[in-house]
Amino acid sequence: MLRPTRRIASRAPRAAIAATLLAFLALILGVRTGMAETFAYIGNADSNDISVFKMDASGEMVPVQTAAFTGVEKPGSSTPLAVTPDKRVLVAGIRSQPFQAVSFAIDPKTGQLSRIGGGPLADSMANIATDRGGKFLFSASYGGNKVAVNPLLANGLAGEPKQVIPTGLNAHAILPSPDNRFVFATNLGSDQVLSFAFDAATGTLTPGDPPAIKVPEKSGPRHFVFHPNSKLVYLIHELNADVAAFSYEGKSGAWHEIQRTTALPEGFSGKPWAADIHVTPDGRFLYASERTTSTLTAYKIDAASGKLTTIGSVPTEKQPRGFNIDPTGRYLAAVGETSDSMTVYTIDQTSGALAKLKSYPTGKKPNWVEFVSLP
User: Fold this and answer.
1) Rg of the Cα atoms in the chain
2) Phi then psi dihedrals of residue 348, to 5 deg
3) CB-based burial of residue 375 (10 Å sphere; 0-12 exposed, 13-18 middle, 19+ buried)?
4) What digits encode the pLDDT tens for the residues 25-38?
5) Whole-number Å distance between alpha carbons of 69 and 34
6) Contacts of 358 (CB under 8 A, 6+ apart)
7) Which of 52, 51, 46, 90 is nearest to 72 (CA)?
8) For 329, left (φ over 0), alpha (ψ -120 to 50), or beta?
9) Is 194 helix (H, G, I), strand (E, B) or coil?
10) Is 121 in contact with 157 (CB distance < 8 Å)?
11) Which three-class secondary structure state does DSSP give residue 11?
12) pTM here?
C-alpha cells in the first residue's frame, strides 16, 4: 500500500524541479534570441583604423574598440569593409600601397576585432564584397579600371588574386546577385553596369549576356542594392544624384529600368555628389546620401511595383560618403568624411521618416558602416 504513495511523493519534487529548469531555460533562450548583440564597424581612412561600437535596443552606441591597421602608415582615400556571411570575419580594403585586404576575426561574444593578417589586392579597391558562400572576395578599382576575385582561405585571409578583369572607366561597386549566380560592377566613368556570370565552385567570372547595362550619359552609376525580395535593384548615380529602380530577373540576371527619381533635396543648387544607398531588411524603405548638401533622402517602396515615393530629406553628417541600416531595420547610422563623426537615426516603422537620436565621434575620415548582429 505504501508503494504508490512513495512514487507519487517522489514524482512531485522531480516534476517541480523539471518545470523550474524548463522555465529557466526558456527565459534564458528568450533573452538570447530576443536580444542579439548588435555591433557597428566604421572604416576610418585617415586614421587607418576601425571604430567598433555596441548598439543597444534603444539605438544608443557605446564605443568598445579602435582596431588599428598594424603596419599601415599612409592613409588611403577610403576604407571599404565587408563581412563574411557567417559573421566570423571582417575584411577591410587598404587603398595605400601595398594594397591589401586586412582580415579581422569577430569575437562572437564581444564583437571585438582581432587581426588575422593581410592578403594581396590587385589595386587600390574602392569597394569589396564577399560572394554569398563566403569563399571569394570581389573588389573594384576606381583608379585602376578593373575588378578582381581573390579566394578567401579557411582562416579568413585573402589569397592571391585568381582573376583580374579590365573594365570601363572607374569601376566603383561590386556585388553578387542574391542567388550567387551573377556579379555586377558599376563603371562610374563609362555610365554602365557590368554583368558577369559567376561560377561559385571555381570563383570564375565570365561576361554576361549582355555584358553591360547602359545608363544615361554623365550620370555616374555608383552604388546599388538588391531588394530583399530579389526581384528589384536600386542604383544611385554620383554625378546627377539620380536614384533608379530596376526590375531584376533572377534566371537571366537582366535589369529593366522601371523608374528614375532623385536624391537631391528640394531647392537644390550646385553640383550633385551622391554617394550611398541602402534598403531596410523588410524591403519597405530605401535611403540615399548626397554629399554636396550633406543630406539623407528617404523613400517608400511600393510593395507591388517596387517604385519609389519620396518621403523627404534630413540633414546629416558633413560629406556622408557611407551609411547603413541595422539588422532590425529600426536604426540608420551615417558617417561624415569631414566631420569625423557618426549620427544615429530612428526609422519610423510606419512612415519611414528619419529622426535624429545622437552623434558620436569616430576615427578620422569615416566613410564606411557595417552592422553585425551576433547571437
Assistant:
1) 23
2) -60, 125
3) exposed
4) 444 444 444 468 99
5) 34
6) 59, 60, 61, 343, 344
7) 46
8) left
9) strand
10) no
11) helix
12) 0.91
